[in-house]
Amino acid sequence: MKKINILFLVLFLVYGGLFAQSDLTKIQDTDAFQEKLFSVIETTNTIQSPFVQEKHLSVFEDVITSNGQFFFKKENQLRWEYTAPFQYLILFNNDKIWIKDDEKVSTFDTKSNQMFKQINDMMTNVLQGKILQENAEYRKEYFENDAYYYIKLYPVKEDVKEFLQEIHLSFDKEKYTVTKIKMVETSGDFTSISFTAPLLNKSIGDEKFTITK
Amino acid sequence: MKNLQLLSSLFFLCLFMSSCTTVYNLRFKDCNKKNIQKEEIPQLVNEVETSLYKGSFDVYGRYLSGLLYLKPTQEQSYRVVFLTEVGMKMFDVEVFKDDFKVHYALKYLDKKILWNLLEKDLRLLLTENLIGEKICFCNYQEQKMLRHRKKRTYYFFNEDNTLKKIEKRSRFRSKMFVYLENHQNQYPTEIKVEHKGIDLNIKLRKIER
Fold it and tell me: What ipTM was predicted for this assembly?
């Protein structure tokens, strides 16, 4: 009897541990999830949130942490700003991009620079969750637990695969907002960005998307 | 007439050469020539701790900015990783005392000429070991200076013995300057590397990890 109890305890601990590590289960009705998500995307005109970015380098135990804030306004205005431990600002305003690095300001044009257009599109699509509509660009796997939906995206195109192996998105189960992004590189390094207080459809002035020198 | 022209040319050539070789108005016998013990060498940048810098590389017309992560791995070897601000890795190299390894680099950065330059700069900053080398203390315009005669490298120090400038020279001119500023606990929080004759400038500013 004692041996059976011990065996049971060991099995329980093993399976219990496994369950705790991967409590995600596959979403049964992915169509229903996407339908709800896309309707939220349709009715969302602005998104803003503070964020915490953590860079994990596979060769070190250290994590490089930075903080910032982002503002997004339909169709194509994005302010992505790092505030600590350094100042760095990326502004997308329709076809124009500004990067402010300390005092140095650089300007780019997405019309003449395809790479920046791709970055622009990727960032705005990821932040909205619209990236899930890009069926030709990514293979997808859908998971959920009690707290969030968890979608894994695997790039199909070689030029993206060179940089990114996987993108993971976490969605709040009630609001369908993106709460976390994890970008896994081919080296095994990954960057996770957590949005700590997302707000939808709060008014954002156009001055947020212009550079002030 | 021809001889006069030749003599004039020779005269100017001598004047030119003499003014360059006495740029610091030093003669070897004016310096304290001996093998220096470790305790006598003012703090160099090596033996640096794990650090994070906001950095920029101006290299052949291309401007790269990001975060430079520096970690000592073994005795006198360092892993140096350069990332974009958004976290994408641009290169990952390791500099040893006698070796340099590129662990990873974006394709467009993976150029031998860049690694040659970077290796020399990192080696100068991190792994230079002056113990047992033929160097001497000198005084130049009341500044404390260490001179490595063979390598034509000059180290200038502040009053508190912190390193403030490194100059590498060829026979006739300066090749590069390294400026080390705003020291905290004897380590510089700002480092600028300026190459002369090569389009490469590096700026690093230490930030909190």
Answer: 0.78
The tokens describing B170, both together, are: 């060829």
**A7-48 per-position pLDDT tens digit:** 444 444 333 333 333 599 999 999 999 999 999 999 999 999
Task: Among A56, A88, A180, pick the best mutation site for testing chain B contact (most B Cβ within 10 A).
Answer: A88
> Rounded to an integer, what distance in angstroms lies between the CA atom of residue A121 and that of residue B139?
59
Q: Cα–Cα distance between A18 and A12 in angstroms, integer?
A: 10
Three-class SS of residue A2? helix
CB A166 within 8 A of CB A85: no
Q: List C-alpha distances in Å: A4 to A9, A12, A14, A23, B202.
A: 8, 12, 15, 27, 67
Q: Which residues of A touch B (CB under 8 A)?
A: 53, 55, 57, 59-60, 62, 64-66, 82, 84-86, 88, 101-102, 104, 106, 162-163, 183, 185, 187, 189, 191
